Amino acid sequence: MSEILKTNKYVLTVFVLTIVIAGMTFGNLPGPATPTTVQTIDGITYDFNDYKSINHEQLALFNYLNTIVSSDYQGYGEWDGWYAEHYHGLHHYVLAFMDYAVSSLFETTPGYRTDYYREFAYDLIKKMNTTEEEWGNSSIEWKEWTHPEYNYVDYYHPNDPDDPDAIYTGGWRGPANIMWTGHFALMESLYERNFNTGEFKDEINWFVNDWNNSLLTDGHGNPKDGGIWGTGLIPCEPYIVFSQCNSIPIVTTELYDSLYGTQYIEGGMWDYGLNFINTIMQDRYDLFMDGYYVDRPTSSYYDTDRLPQEIPGPAISLYADDGRCKVSSYNNGWALAFLQHIQPEETLHDYPIFLEHFMKDISGDMAYMMDTYNNPDGFGTYDILGTMFTMHLANQMGDYVTRNRLVNFLYSSFNKVWSEDGRELHYDTMDLEPFLQPVMAFGSIWAHAPVTIMDLADARHAGFWEFPYISEADDSKIWVYQAQWDPEKEGFILNIQVDQPATLVFSNFESSPTAYANGVAIGELLQLDSGHQLSLEEGSYLLVIK
Length: 546
Description:
about 550 residues; alpha+beta; five-stranded antiparallel β-sheet; four-stranded antiparallel β-sheet; 16 helices; globular; disordered N terminus
């Protein structure tokens, strides 16, 4: 990060003072509250409070993100508005976690599936997959993998190309790059979960099979406990394994099984690795350590002071001289959230312990997550990351008090900036760190969405793709807060604000449906070749369509 984020007490003091001053001086343009009501139609009661909803600001944040992601604004290998010129190793993380955040938004209104949402998710995947051959130094491949600072090009395991038994594990898409392959495959899997196109199924299958081979064999086709690296886990950078990075392909495998009826999880693909994470890769409080070396690193990127005396062994803390392992709040906040689906009891047990040792109180309604309890007086990049990940975890745990305290600390120092037309919103982070601007946008969505990674790890239920849904709309003229088919009551719930006269087209209605407002029929939808059209004038609507 920039100089302002150097790790010291002074930065934290300035940051807290900024929050206090900001809270007194900044005026924010409020969005309209999402209305809810109860309607009875033909003796059936529809309570809009019973259905998930997204709010006005979250939609405006998404509209802002669309301006830096959509191919309508820039090419896949272009980064206008990302302010990431100096952060060559972070682009792919921002793309991935942005995808997870907006997938939560998509699932909140599952009956609203126009190209506006689908193309955003598609363009994220394409930006994630930019190659050096096509985009040169603007590609994710170069920024994350072949950049001279990393130089992850050709390597073997063991890390000795002269060893006749060494396995070649090199390459951007190779088995030792789970920090890219895991995220990329999960982005593709969520796309298929959300939009059911089939386009990425074969590629996802290739990754899952490659991981399965790495985890269950010696790389030469022979079964081996712990797989190629002896841990049941896959390295992020050659050669270090992380619990948080492996949580991503674990969720991907769970979702793949759920989508396509395979049994990789049931077959034990991740059993050895989960046991290794939960027993060997633990700190003094039985929380996750941040990194375990399975071989000598192939790059000079990592501080040699982090290397254990014997390899394999845990990464060493830079803030203690007793050889204790490296720990971080971002590691635990991330891993506890993404591993909860496969081992819920572990997250439930560890969550309060995690808060006890990593959370630092600022005031009654503000707190942040220390990067590491080994350096309690520092403050910098990883304290912000740890706070961001823990906001999502707290939201997932239903611990809204903690989530709100973290949100208050992290967001109160930034002014909200609305576009002139009122359609887009972002947080002004320019005085602290411009690179945080898109991160703060999707981070807010992620921390408040009623859908979490726990929900997204499962495929949609049988029959979902036959339900009525909005397939086309004048997206730039509307705000869709609630949109879903209720299969039990056989009605479509639509909570919408219309800025200008707009039309919506519904697919999968067998006959022309009627729209109801306040329990009263207001008109039948117009039948078209592409579906049934609803036309709305400017205003706010709570509609049941059946």
